[in-house]
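Let us work through a complete example step by step.
Step 1: write down the sequence.
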Amino acid sequence: MKIENVKFQYFFWGAFFFFLMGAVSGIIVVYSMSDQDWLESSEILVNHKAGFEASLGIFIRNIGVAAILASGLFLFGLPTLIVLFINGLWIGTVIASRLAEGVSLATLLLKLLPHGVLELPALLLAGAIGLKGFVFYFQSKKDWRFYYRMTRWIILLLVVAALIEGFVTSVV
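Step 2: predict the structure and record it as tokens.
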């Protein structure tokens, strides 16, 4: 998929930056906690479901997150910044806590990459749409077809990612 609007790329990379800052913060938080603290909290990060039920739940959760991210288009980007950072914080916490538990990097990559290569770009695209809220009201021409196309791509990527996560990565 090509990002047609060159300026949109800046918003995409801005979304990536806020997500990355959250992820780094999550890693720092886990490694600054005592061993007992992360052992007690890491169980909430485990998904015990698989199959269609898991895929549907994952898709519904992710489409909700994408909607909140994109809502920044109308809310001057503020919810987008918060949600990008929190999602980055969550994934950084997941990665750091699993590595601290002794889970191998290969196992962790097998659990995250198959669906993450589609899910993360979809959420970053939604975040980029939301970050455009900083300039949206100041533009004389609003390209609604562009946002519609991006929304279709986001939904498609999230459907495929949810199916992969529900049927493949949940059984790894």
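Step 3: interpret the result. Residues 1-6 have pLDDT under 50 and may be disordered.
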